[in-house]
Structures are given as structure tokens and as C-alpha cells.
Amino acid sequence: MTEAARLEPQVNHIHLAKKDYEGAESTMCKGCGHDAITASIITACYESSIDPRRVVKLSGIGCSSKTTNYFMNQSFGFNGTHGRMAALATGAGVANHHMLPIGVSGDGDTASIGLGNFAHMIRRNLRITYIVENNGVYGLTKGQFSATADKGSRAKKGWVNPWNAIDLASLAILMGATFVARSFSGDRKQLAPLVQAAMNHNGTAVLDVLSPCVTFNNHEGSTKSLKGIREMKDDLNEIDFIPEFEPIDVEYAPGKDLRVRMHDGGTVVLHKLKDHDPTDRVQAMSVVEQGMHEGKFVTGLIYIDETQPDFATQENVCDTPLSMLSEAELRPSAKDLALINESFMR
Amino acid sequence: MTEAARLEPQVNHIHLAKKDYEGAESTMCKGCGHDAITASIITACYESSIDPRRVVKLSGIGCSSKTTNYFMNQSFGFNGTHGRMAALATGAGVANHHMLPIGVSGDGDTASIGLGNFAHMIRRNLRITYIVENNGVYGLTKGQFSATADKGSRAKKGWVNPWNAIDLASLAILMGATFVARSFSGDRKQLAPLVQAAMNHNGTAVLDVLSPCVTFNNHEGSTKSLKGIREMKDDLNEIDFIPEFEPIDVEYAPGKDLRVRMHDGGTVVLHKLKDHDPTDRVQAMSVVEQGMHEGKFVTGLIYIDETQPDFATQENVCDTPLSMLSEAELRPSAKDLALINESFMR
Amino acid sequence: MAEMDTPPVNDVNICVATANGSGSASSNQILYKSVFKMGIPCSGKNLFPSNIQGLPTWYFIRASEKGYLGRKDAIDVMVLFNDDTLAADVKKVRAGGLILYDDSRPLPPALVRKDVSYIGVPAENLVKEHIKAPQLRAKQRNMVYVGAVGKLFGIPMGIMQEVLEDTFGNKPAVIESNLQCIELGYKHIEKLGTAQDVGFLKAVPNGNKHKIMTEGNTACAVGAIFGGATVVTWYPITPSSSLVEEMIERIPAFRRDEHGKNRYAIVQAEDELAAVSMLVGAGFAGARAMTSTAGPGLSLMQESIGLAYFVEVPGVIFVIQRGGPSTGLPTRTQQSDITLMHQGSHGDTRHIVLIPHDNSSAFDMAWQAFDVADRFQTPVFVMMDLDLGMNMSLSAPFAMPDRPFDRGKLLSEADIKAQGDKFSRYLDLDGDGIPQRTIPGNLHPAAAYFARGSGHDEQARYSEDHIVYRKLLERLRRKYETAREYVPKPIVYNGASTGMGLMSFGSSYEPTREARDIMATRGKAADHLLLRALPVNGDVRDFLASHKEIYLIEQNRDGQMTQILRDEFPEYAARIKPVCLFDGMPLAAGDIVESILGGN
Amino acid sequence: MAEMDTPPVNDVNICVATANGSGSASSNQILYKSVFKMGIPCSGKNLFPSNIQGLPTWYFIRASEKGYLGRKDAIDVMVLFNDDTLAADVKKVRAGGLILYDDSRPLPPALVRKDVSYIGVPAENLVKEHIKAPQLRAKQRNMVYVGAVGKLFGIPMGIMQEVLEDTFGNKPAVIESNLQCIELGYKHIEKLGTAQDVGFLKAVPNGNKHKIMTEGNTACAVGAIFGGATVVTWYPITPSSSLVEEMIERIPAFRRDEHGKNRYAIVQAEDELAAVSMLVGAGFAGARAMTSTAGPGLSLMQESIGLAYFVEVPGVIFVIQRGGPSTGLPTRTQQSDITLMHQGSHGDTRHIVLIPHDNSSAFDMAWQAFDVADRFQTPVFVMMDLDLGMNMSLSAPFAMPDRPFDRGKLLSEADIKAQGDKFSRYLDLDGDGIPQRTIPGNLHPAAAYFARGSGHDEQARYSEDHIVYRKLLERLRRKYETAREYVPKPIVYNGASTGMGLMSFGSSYEPTREARDIMATRGKAADHLLLRALPVNGDVRDFLASHKEIYLIEQNRDGQMTQILRDEFPEYAARIKPVCLFDGMPLAAGDIVESILGGN
Ligand SMILES: Cc1ncc(C[n+]2csc(CCOP(=O)(O)OP(=O)(O)O)c2C)c(N)n1
Ligand SMILES: Cc1ncc(C[n+]2csc(CCOP(=O)(O)OP(=O)(O)O)c2C)c(N)n1
Ligand code: SF4
Ligand code: SF4
Ligand SMILES: [Mg+2]
Ligand SMILES: [Mg+2]
């Protein structure tokens, strides 16, 4: 941190300091993974010189969902109902497709109550950076299993989970997601550039981020404890994101490295650690499956497809945001009405 | 048919005639695929000598969901709300795990509004034969696209579907289903034994059955028309089901054929048409994916795992159905209550 | 009765019994529109099953020179074109009435009543004989009764032909073959020389000159387009689907920009939970957003309706009521979701409900709803029902909105600057309970706020403070009180009242109007108040105060509107007697009269 | 006031301010139970944030010899152990009251009030000095105030030790270190020799002899086990989670069969839509099924509640109300989901609601609810709220059910045989609106039926007939009327009334009882009626008839219960005046008195 701090310029490309990306004071438990993710989001937005006023923060209900309040005070935010953020974002996204939506959800929020709406949002390829702060537990309601808790995992209350975990990354790929990544709250080096890339993706970018709940799911017997995750984490690639306004001067090893130009500008540079091509959907599915099989959390950029139109494009929405259209553009004329009336006289 | 009719005995193993498996008169449109599925269910139950009084029929809302009324009049039935059959069945199944639940749903019912509950039912491996009568359209509300409509498919009203179809077979496998098959309403030879096998499976058996809606989705440009399905259908295997009470006298070619003993009795014999091992989960996922890729509907028994405990077993439910327990078994004694009261005095 | 002597003119009630999916929708339409074209006020009500093909359906065409458009109990003419329901249908026609049936096969003797007359038209045989394409026969058989009825009651062949041409515009083959069948029926009657004395239709020159005929859902669809709806979310459900489907058909004509892009988005959601959440998201983001649903969907929307109320997000929700509870009777009409609209969601809520009573007010309230929603920053319901929404009826033409969009206290960047660069999302500056509002895209540094369904203070910050919370709830209630004077006022129809008052709303209006006239002829003159919105306002209190005996006509079992009024006006609670008619049939004046005065 | 002269005995109201997750839950528990153990009636109310760690929380311990268990507005003693809220907390104590604070650091001078006394206890320093393990210090600091309060108010050290031992049973290390901290506080005060004159606690021999202390959710959990609940479905939500979690803990002791198998299933659903659908499925299949939820969950359950009502499936739904609307204040209390319970779902419904007012009635109604549900074949609500459900309070011990299970008209195979092998699922044989019922597993050939949420006739066949439908709805309403005399009756507390009546229900009962006593001392004697169920019954009408001025105490904004009563009793509607106190704080008698009589 200190080293990075010294190197960091005081303001970014749009003359904002890092603190301009901060939000209200966090009310998470000390050490909660969610706070670390917040920090990575702040870093990512700062580094990418995102204008906070162009961002809409969206979330459901849960500890995780509260965190949209803890970054970017200058952005609009909407902390909705449990499990419906995907649909809320769909409405907000189509109403004003010029805004940049960042959604934060929990594993309960997304994989339990919100599963259906999550799947259908992906199907529509809504433009959004959708971050699941995945701790395998219901934090805010004090420690029940969520649907991403691993089979055999032990809850703080002593209960043992009998059900297989839902893997959000493979589900996202199956549902047609065009950007799927997995990371760990504690790995800011991996997470921040993933968030940067996601924000420049023109479609649904799902980030399944393992994020230990230090209060209710950090004990022996839990697979989503800090220790558990560290042991099981398995990186597919190292990732760099180079914003549009910066020269691409990272090291690049042809064959081993991969460059993807993002639809909305900027470039992702991937240094492969495993033999995995993230543009191959079938491979993407199986690398995750394989990982699970071996008891590993595969992380990194798992799948990317920059060619698909996003929801607003598919809906053929006009350039002016729908929310900004004027009466002149919306209300047909008295003559139009006369014609309609006439048609009802026949 | 005539040939089969001649061979058919008048009554089955439990002395019921086929008409004893019939239900109320169908109100489907003439030629609707759903009626053909009903006929296969009747055949399957008759052939397997299922006692109708042991069956609970469950469904959601839609043309498809109405059809539980059109077979087995002597069974209990519950036509619930749109999309919630999976959860309804979970409650009914745990309340009395001795009953045999047959669920019938539509693609709208399961893949749109019911997706989340469907996925979680599978995760719990609830014992049920879950049949989706998949026509890619909302029949009962007159022809809107469902979530299984293929991209580019044209609706009767002229609209073109911009979204990728949700593939229920691969979703089921991903969610951990222990029995996944696909078939076509028009192929009773394939469908009836699949239903028989499903009924003897001790867990969630998902049958995704393509079933043309002759009224709203049977035109040029629809991929789920009778013609479309016939063209795209691609059989993985031929299937025979031999009930417990019958000798296994079908031809069997080692290497090419596969026998699976079902948990609740009876044996499935598969004659492989493709090189596919339905006990291999990863293969099962990819054979479906591959099919989609090639514009085919892969049919047959796609995946089977007879080793997993079902929901009631996993919940350690006692042998007597919960619904049949007596007051003596349920209400603790006055002494128990005194102890509880005492604990509240400290 | 007098009608038995001289057959009445332009007062005929026809019921057509057919099977679903048999093509009768078109033939009934032709018949209905022909009556309209003759200048006779008329309504066309479809009693259809929750099924696609083969189940019984009945269509009621009522021609009423006096302009009564409600259902009439007494059926003058019964067209028997469904073998499955013959026995019951024969009983439905009034004594002295007429039965028209397909005599290709003889009617079972048991179905022959002495007190009605029978006329046969061998539709099946005629069609078999004259229509070549066998696949057309089943559907076109119904056109034969159109011709027969036309001839019997005096609808000129030319008018039916015109209507056919209007309806099938550019499909000459369809027009031709349909026309052929109509003529078959027409000529058959002509040839028979049969007459009847049940009633006649006689053209009224310019009779419907300033009238339009349409369905309420269409009126709402057009109204919503004129109201500036840009984000339309929906999930199909009877009887609401046609509202959005009409929008899908109509909106492209008005909302394509110069690049061929859409100035709207219509999103078919995966379920109603998503539809309403999308609505809330779009409303928050500043779009004029709407959805349309029926009972089961409304139930599923409850949680997010409370969110919108508490976060103060505008949105318009059309509810086309059907027979509840549960799946109930999806193709029958009721007014039984009132409580769930008005007090929907958990916790204390009070929602604004606009209540059209005909097609022209449905259009008006559809566009107005967007203004009300924007002004009050809250979900606004437009309460429809199947009878209003899916049946053909007459009304005044749609009137061009008389005022520009009211986007309420929506601040632009300049607005914030003008007020000293300050903005507090939930501060009640004006004492009317309505705070100021901004939307994403407003780049003023003070514009952004954090919306949440949990407790919050005037600056939209999280708060659990009990005083902040109480004040917030009180302000929300104040907003509702402010809305009281903003929403449409009731209309009072006073006469020489005997102290009796009738109150109606929505689709109950028309039959209540008729019931009042009937009651007057029976010496029981009553005044009539039409409720047009919740919260109630205007003359309601006076009306209650000045009438000792008040009947509130409701199409539900439990008197849902009565409960609301009794609570609002406890001092008059005992005067308000609910007249609850809830069998799912479109309400008939006769039933109202009978409930109040007793059987004749 | 008199108290200033002789300090009152056993009438002390203590408020402890700490931070969430700081271990204060334990210390408050110890303090509360110690007061109980002394034989003094007492309640312990926790005002906690919707958060896991670090936000402010307050705990109210009220000792009341007279047995008033509601919250008291005037705080006698404030324990300041949360730096974040110091400034506000200092203001909360009444004039003449006492502030106990951690004087490890001096109190900012601005926080020193002249009209209260201050006593310091250097908890942080004491803990730092005496507790070796640093990770324990933060949590155990709170135990210091327990000792200090104990010493100041006269709780014997021995009693606190006993409570510690009861609480931490087999964890001697925990007992020891906690005891050490309590002693640190105790001895510090002892050493200081400080006295106070706010009040004292004095043991009452056998004072709480026939009392138990617990939380309402626990009472419901135990009651449900005694009611024979076998299928428990749930989705976690504050403040209802602890109800099912208590069942999870307790049920194995009673419901393992000889093979170690469970005579129950507790299923954590994926959401409330699933939880309630599972409930309906299990109820249909014949199990005694239940779920437990709060406002947002109740909203999501609406559709299937209507299904259960219309299909006539039994099921018990516990609703632990919290501050609405929307997410609202999840950790505050309200009674604001009444309409949504009583008239929940679209269409006409009327649901049975049982309303406990203390722990012992919560136990009773929890088991009774299963009988009521089975008898009426309908969902039954048990209306709780956060104050009742999650706060510690005294009550009579749970009484063993006085009657066997009532499974209602549930037919066995033999029953069907005995009535001539006939069975009609929806036929009202007895005129009480309640039909007979069978469940899967009944092998009689006539037993099976087809349940559906759509229209159906007496034989459970699909029907769209309007008369069949009207009769069905009328029968359902008749069933509700039958329930009127079956559900718990109100209790009337008559006195020397001046014509004024108070009505209360649920957690409003206790503070209303106290308010009535206060009002009597102010010359305004009132009678008091406790509502215990919907539909209302018994003496309610008489009570309304015999009191001219009636105040209905409700913890909601809009007078939801008032609306129901005004509709049920229109002739008395104007008499019923809602007293709406809805700020989310546990209701205090003082607020009621003030609302009715005005501030003194
Ligand atoms: C409809 C509804 N049901 C239940 C709840 C209670 N609830 C609040 S947060 C939560 C789970 C949160 O879990 P997760 O999404 O994993 O977030 P975390 O707290 O673990 O970050 C639940 C069940 C609610 N707020 N709304
Ligand atoms: C909550 C709710 N929303 C909407 C509906 C209306 N509805 C009835 S059936 C149906 C879709 C049926 O489609 P599917 O499940 O594919 O069945 P199909 O008719 O095609 O067999 C819909 C949307 C409803 N009954 N309930
Ligand atoms: S409870 Fe868990 S998820 Fe919630 S803030 Fe604490 S550590 Fe984080
Ligand atoms: S509408 Fe389609 S799905 Fe429904 S019954 Fe007719 S053919 Fe079958
Ligand atoms: Mg979580
Ligand atoms: Mg379908």
C-alpha cells in the first residue's frame, strides 16, 4: 500500500482525487470482505477516471447490498428489495442507457431469492457491472446458509449444509453472460482491474467475488472462510486493465498473453496462468466445473464476448435517454388523435 | 397403434384397465402436443402398474398445467399458481413421501416465472417426475414468447424473439438434477418409457418434452413447430423400461447398450445411438450444448445418477408420512412442558 | 308487457352462443359494428372461457336507443350455435323471445319451449354446400347467423358489407368469402319470409356521430401513449394482456425517431416481480414507466409497490380486475382488488387510484395517471376491470389532453442552481408533503441521492431514529391528503331525490345509471354519485350528509369500497349500504334494482 | 415528585446504551435475569440496529413492582457505554435521574447536566488492568456496568453469580471471567461508597414464583411444537427468524422416532414465495404446516395466501411485524400488517387472525392456530410483532393444551365408507360453510379430488358458471362467520367507567392496561377491551354500544384495525377513535395517556 501510495498521482485523468470516490462510513463488521471489495471498486473507478455523476449504484438487501452506500457519494444509488436488483437495474438501465450501472448483491440476494431475475437479466445482456459479494451465508440475518454454501460446510450455529452449492459463474455462462469473472475480496490486484474491465463491457458483466463473512462464516469447517478461500483459490490469469486514455505499455508475451479491446474503450491484458481461453464458452463452462470437481475456486477472467449487443441496443432504444425525452417527442398530436378516433368510428 | 393394441393385455399387473388411468376430457386445442404427452403418461402409468391412488398430480398455470386433470381421475391433483409448482411439490412431497408426485408444467411456468423455484427444487433432489411441456410459447395467454423460444423465432403475431433460449436440460444438470431427459410429445415410444423410468427414480427427474402449440407456435419461422421439432430432433438413445414385475427380456448388446437399475425398482435399458454415457455429468452438459450449437434438439436419457439421496432422505424424515402422524407422536407431554417452563424461570 | 304488442325499435338484446376458437369473434364483431354503423347506441360483451379452443362462449349485443350500455338480464334473442350448451341456452331467452338455431339437424324436442319462437337457419348445410375449402367451413359457419340476424332485425346488407370491408381492409378474399356466408344467412331468411316481433333495428341518422366504439384496454393503451409512457414492462395475464399488446401495435407509428430508433421500450418481463421492479427502476431513473396486470400479478407486485411508495418513485399500474380470489375466474369481471390497490403492500400505505367508468375516461385517466404519478412521486393505479377493458362499448371520442405534461417537482441542474445549489430529496418545502426530486443524468453536484426502502431522513441518509421515521410517515400521509384535491372529482347526478342515493364507480356506473332510471319509474327516485378516484374528495361528504339511505354498488363480495368510505366518514358509516354483486357477469341494472327494491 | 424524597422501591427504569456486537447482549441479559430472580416483575426491551456490529443499541430494563411490563418513557438511569451516542443519550434521562458512565476518560463538559447525578466507573481501565486476554476486553467491558448497577441498586452479588451460572452452564471459564468483571464494577462502587436516590431494588420472596420469562418468538416456537407442526418452511427475516431457529434447536428433543428419524421437517426455502407454496403443498397433503415471516415476506406470500384461501388448505402463518412500509425499520416494532393479513391477496378474502398479547397467550394461540386452520381449512395468521416476539418479558407459565388435536372434518377411509362411500370436497353439508376434506394417502376410491385455484364446483370440478361461483364465494364468507364464534373471545376489563372505553390488541395491551390505571388516577376511569382475534366476536358489539367514546390503540399510522371495526360496526363507527402510535418504539403507557388526555 505504501509503495502504491507513493506512486499514485494525486488526481486522476478527470482531476478527481481518490477520496472523491469514497462514500459514507462503512457499517460492516471489522474485517468483513465486503469492505475490501468496496475499496477495489473505489480503486477501479478512480483508476478508470469514471465520473461518479454518471454512475448509478444498485443493490438488493443484505450486508453486501448496503455497501453501495460506502462508495461514490456523488452517484445516484438505489438500495431496493431483496433479490430484485437485477430487475430494478433493467428498468433503470433502459430508462437511461447513458448511465453506468454498478450493481452489488449478495449470494443470498442473487442465488436464492433473486435467482430467476438474475438469470433473465443475463439473458437480456443488460449493460451492468454486477458484483456478487459471495460469502456463502446470510450475513445480515445472522448466519443461515445461502445457496452458495458448499455441501458439508458447517454453519456457526453448528448446522451442516446438505445441499450442493449453486455456482454463479457457470450459471451465468449457461444463461448467456458475455463477461464472467471470479475473484476474491482480498485480492485487490486481481479484482480492481476486473471491475475496470467490467465497467467498459457493453453487456452484463458478472463478477462472483468470494468475500468472507468474518462474523458468521469464518470458522473451522466453513469453505468460505478466509483460510478456506485462500487455500482453494486458483488463478486462471493475471489481469491488467489499460484505460482508453493511457498508453498500453504493459509487458505482453504473445501466445501466453491475450488482449481484448473492450467495447466502451480500454483494453484488457491477460497473462495466462493456466491454459484457458476466456473467449471459448465451452471451455469456460468446463474450467469452472473442473475446478469445482477438484475443490478449487477458479478465479480470474473466465469468459468474455465483446461482440453481443446489449439490452438497450437490442431494444433499438433511441440515443436520447428515454427519461430525458420531452413532451414534444412523446405526445402525439391532436391530428394523430383525430385519426385514432376516426378509426374507432368504423 | 393397432399392432400395439392387439398385443396389449386387457388389464395390467394390478388389474387395472388402461381407461382406469384416464382423466377428464381434454380441453386442449385439437392436435396440441400436450394431449399426446398426456397419452404417454397414461401409457407409462398403465404399463408400470402404478396405483393411481398413490399418485399426486401437481401443476402450475398454463395450457400444459391444466393437463394433470386429463389423466388419472383417481389421483389427488393440485393445480396451483403460476410458476410455483416446484415449491408446492416440495411441501407435498415432504408431508407425505410415500406418494408418487407427477408434476406437469409449461415452459413459461418453469423457465420464466418459476425458474428460481425450479432450480432450488432440483438442488434439493425432491422426488418427483417433473415434466415440462415445452412449446416455446405462452399458450394460455395467446402466443407471447416464453423463455425457451429460440432466438430469431417468429411469433404468430409477427414479433421476432431477440433473446437466447433457456435450455432446461442443461440448466437442470447444472443445478444438480439426478435424472434429465428430453423428448418430443409426438414420440410416444421414447417418451412413455422415459416417464416410467422417471417415476422409479428416487429424486428429481426432469423431462423436457418438446410439445408443439398448434394454435400459436406452429407456423413458418417457429423453431418449435411440429415440422421444426421433427427436423431438429436428434436421438441419443433408444430406451426401454422394464418394470420390477417383468422379466428383463429385451435384446441387450454389451458395449452398445446400458442397463441402469432404478432405485425404486425396474430397469432402464438404453440402446445407444450416439456415443454418449448418460452417467457422466460433464458429457451430459456438453452433449446438450453441442446439440444446441448444431441447431439440434438432443433427445433421450441425457443424464442419470441413481446414487444420490432424495430430499426426504436427506431431511431424515421418519418412515410414517408426516401427514399421518398422530397426536401421540407429535405433542410432547405435560412433563415436557413443565421442564420447559422451569427453564424459563432461570 | 307493452313490447308484445308493437315490437320495440332499437331496443334489442341478442345473445350469441358459440364455441371458443370457432371464428365467432369475427362474426360477433361484424354484427356489433353493423348496429353501431346504423347509428344505434350499442355494447358488445364477450363471455368467454379461460381456454383457447372448444369451450362455450357467449356474446351479448345490446342495442339501446336510450343509450344503456350495461348488460341486460332479459335476453330477447338467443342464437344457438353451440351444441354443447343448447339445453341451458334455450332456457336463457325471455318469454316471448326468439331463438335462432342451426336447423341442419333438428332440435331435440325436449328443447322446444312454448313461450318463445324458433327460427332455423341451416348454417352447417349451407356452408357445406357453398364453401369449397373445407378448412374454412368450421369458422365461416358463424357468419351465417350474422346474415340471418341482420335480415331478421333489419340490418341492411350494405352496412354489413361496409363493416366487413372496414374490418378486413386489404384482404379481399376474406371479405368475399365472409360476405358470401352472410348472404347465405340473409337470403335464407329472406326466402323463408319469416318475420319476428321481438324488436327491430332502425337506422338513426347520425345517431353515433360523436361516438367511438372501442375497448377499455385500447383506450388505456392510447391514453398511455399520449401520457408519454416510455418504459412499459409487463407479464402477460388475462384480461390485461391486450392493453400492452395494443401499445406494441400502435406505439411505433408515433415513437420512431429520425434514425428509426424507438422512443420507448416495451419489455416483457419474466414475471410480475420483475415487471414491477423494472417499473420502479425506470421510474427512479426518470422515465414515465407503466405496467399492466390483473389480480395474481398485483399480488406478486405487493412488495415492490411498497418500495415505490416509500422511496417515492412514480409509476403507473393498470389493473384490469377479474374474478378472484386466486386464479378464480380469469375471464370474468369483478371489482375485487380495491383494498389491494388502495392499501397495497405491508406497512401503512395509501395509494392513489384513478377509476375510469367508460372508454373516454379510460383514455383521460391513462394519460393523467402519468402526471399524477410524477407530481406525487408515487405509484398510481388505474382501476379497470374485464368488463370495461375487454368489451366493446361506445363513448365520446378521446379528447386531446388539455394541459402539458406535469412532471411535478422534478429539478433540472439549473433549478438546483437557482435555489442556491441546495437539494434535499425528502424535505417538504411546501407543506404539501411532496418533496423535490432529481433523476440520474442530472449532473449538478448536489443532485445525486441514495434511494432506499429502509428508514431515511430528509437528506435521504439512512436513519433509524424514531422521530425522523414518524415524521416521514406523517409526510407520506400528508401527500395523500394533498392528492385528495388533485385527483378527479366525483360527478353527482341529482334529481328529485327521495333521500336515497346511489354511489357507483368504474364499470358499475353504466348499469347504476340505468338502474336509477328504472327505479325512478318505480317511484323510487334516487340521486347518483360517480366516484372517480381514491382518495375520495369533492362532493362525497355532502352527498353522504344529504342522503339518509345510500347504496354503494360494488362488484365484490365484501364491500371493499364501502369499507374505505365507512372508515373515511365514520359519522355516515351506517348510511352506506353496500350492494355487492359479484358473480363475475358484467353487471346488469336489473340486479341492482332487485337488490335495492327487491324482486319486482 | 414524591420519589425525590424517599427513593422508590422496585420501580426503576434503566436504559443501557452500548454498541451492537460488543457483547452487551449477554451483560444485559444477566442484569435482566438478576432482577427477575429477585422476584421483581420486569421486562427487558432491546432497541437494536439493523446491523451486525458497531451501531448503537439500547436496552431497557424496567422493574415494576406493580407488574407493568410495557416500555416506560421516563428513564431513571442511563448507562452510557457507547461513545457514539453520548450526547443524545445524556438528554434521555429524566430530571433527577442518574447517569452511569465509563470515566476511564472524562466526560466532555458539554455533556454535564445539572439536573441529574453522575456516577463514573472506569470500566475500560479496570478491564485493561485485570483481564489478561486482550481479545476478551472489548466484550467484557460491559460486564463492569452490570456489577456497578447491581451494587448501586441493591442486586446481591450472589444473585448475579447464580444467573451467570444458569446462563453459561457448562462453561466455567466464561463464568469466571464474566464474574470477575462484574465484581470489578461492583467493588468499584462499593469502594467509592457512592449512593443514589433514584430507586432501589429489593428482593420480593416468591415474587416471580408463578412466572416465566422468555420472548414471544420462543413462546410461539414451543407452542407450534405442541400444536403438532410437522412441516415448517421459512426464509430468514428479522424479526421472525428466531421463531424457527428456536424450533430448530428445540424440536429434536421431542420428535425423533425410535430409529433416530425426524417426525418433522424444517425447510429453509429459497424465498418467501417458495416458503408459502411449500406450506400450501404440505397443508394440502395433510401435514400441520407453518411458516413465519415479517412484512416484506408477507407481501411476497400474497398470491399463494389467496390460493390457500380459495382451495381451502390449512396452514399457520406467524407474522412478526416490524416497521413498514418496504424494508422500513426492520428492527423496530409496529402493528401495520393487519389489513394485509386480514384481507390479504387479490379478490375477496377474509382471513382468521389470532392475536396474542403476552408470552403465555402466544404459546396458547400458537398451538390453537393449528386446530383452527384444520377446522376451517384455511390459512390462519398469528399476529405478533417485534416487541412481543423478540423482547424478554414475564408471563404465566405455558399451560398444557386443554384439548386434543382438532383436525376438523378430515375424513379417513372408514369415514367415507360410513357415509355411504360418498365424498364431495366442497359441499357444505352442515350449513357452517365448512366442507369435508381428504388427504393424499386416503385410498378410498372416492377420496381423491382435484384442487385448483380456479373456479370449481362442490365436487371440485372446474367450473366457470356464475351461480356456482357466487355460491362458492358466499360459502367461504359463511365459513368466516362460523369462525367468529370459534376464535378466542375478547377480554373485557370493566371498572367504574365514565363511558370511556379503551380497546387494545397484541403488544398494545400491556401499555394500555397501564395507561388505564394512570388515567384512572387522573379522574378518567375507562373500561378496557382486549381484542384477541379476527373476526371480532363476543363482547365487542356490547362494548361499542355501551361506551360513547372509544379509543382503539394501534401501532400503525392509518388505523388499520379501526378501519376493520368501523366497517363491521357501521352504527358505532363514529365512536371508534384510533390512537395511532407508530414511531417504531415499543409502546409506552405515557404516550397513550398523552394522546387521549393531552400532555399534562
Ligand atoms: C423479502 C425479504 N425476505 C427476507 C429478508 C431478510 N434478509 C435481509 S438480508 C437477507 C440475506 C442476505 O444475504 P446475502 O444476500 O448473502 O447478503 P450478506 O448479508 O451475506 O452480504 C435476508 C434473508 C428481506 N429483507 N426481504
Ligand atoms: C401470476 C400470474 N401471472 C400471469 C398469469 C397468466 N398466465 C397464465 S398461463 C401463462 C403462461 C403459460 O405458458 P406456459 O407455462 O408455457 O404454458 P402453455 O400454455 O404454453 O402450455 C400466463 C402468463 C397467471 N396465471 N398468473
Ligand atoms: S455479518 Fe458478515 S457479511 Fe455482514 S458485515 Fe459482518 S462480516 Fe460482513
Ligand atoms: S393454445 Fe397451444 S398449448 Fe394451448 S391447448 Fe392450444 S395448441 Fe395447446
Ligand atoms: Mg451472503
Ligand atoms: Mg408454453
Please tell me about this protein's structure.
- The complex is a heterotetramer, with two copies of chain A (346 residues) and two copies of chain C (600 residues).
- Chain A has 346 residues and is an alpha/beta fold.
- Chain A has one domain (3-237, 273-322): Thiamin diphosphate (ThDP)-binding fold, Pyr/PP domains (Rossmann fold, 3-Layer(aba) Sandwich).
- Chain A is built from 13 helices and 13 strands.
- Chain A has an eight-stranded mixed beta sheet, with helices on both faces. Chain A has a three-stranded antiparallel beta sheet with strand order 10-12-11. Chain A has a two-stranded antiparallel sheet with strand order 5-6.
- In chain A, β11 and β12 form a beta hairpin.
- In chain A, α5 (107-113) crosses α6 and α7 runs antiparallel to α10 (281-293).
- Chain A is globular and about 75 Å long.
- The termini of chain A are far apart.
- The mean pLDDT of chain A is 94.
- Chain C has 600 residues and is an alpha/beta fold.
- Chain C has four domains: 11-209, Pyruvate-ferredoxin Oxidoreductase, domain 3, CATH 3.40.920.10; 214-395, Rossmann fold (3-Layer(aba) Sandwich); 409-488, no CATH class; 491-597, Rossmann fold.
- Chain C has helices at residues 24-37, 86-92, 123-130, 134-153, 157-168, 172-192, 216-226, 241-250, 272-284, 295-311, 338-342, 359-376, 386-390, 413-418, 466-484, 509-521, 540-546, 560-568, 589-597, and strands at residues 11-19, 42-47, 56-64, 75-80, 93-101, 117-120, 212-215, 231-234, 265-268, 289-293, 315-321, 352-354, 379-385, 392-395, 450-452, 491-493, 500-505, 526-531, 533-534, 549-554, 576-580.
- In chain C, the strands form four sheets. Chain C has a seven-stranded mixed beta sheet with strand order 9-8-10-11-13-12-19, sandwiched between helices. A six-stranded mixed beta sheet of chain C has the order 2-3-1-4-5-6, with helices on both faces. Chain C has a five-stranded mixed beta sheet with strand order 16-18-17-20-21, with helices on both faces.
- In chain C, α3 packs across α4.
- The radius of gyration of chain C is 26 Å and the shape is globular.
- Chain C starts with 10 loop residues before the first strand and ends with a helix.
- The mean pLDDT of chain C is 96.
- Chains A and C meet through β1, β2, α4, α6 and α12 of A and β7, α7, α9, α10 and β15 of C.
- The complex binds thiamine diphosphate (TPP) (2 copies), iron/sulfur cluster (SF4) (2 copies) and magnesium ion (2 copies).
- One iron/sulfur cluster is lined by residues 28-29, 32, 34, 63, 135, 139-140, 213-216 of chain A.
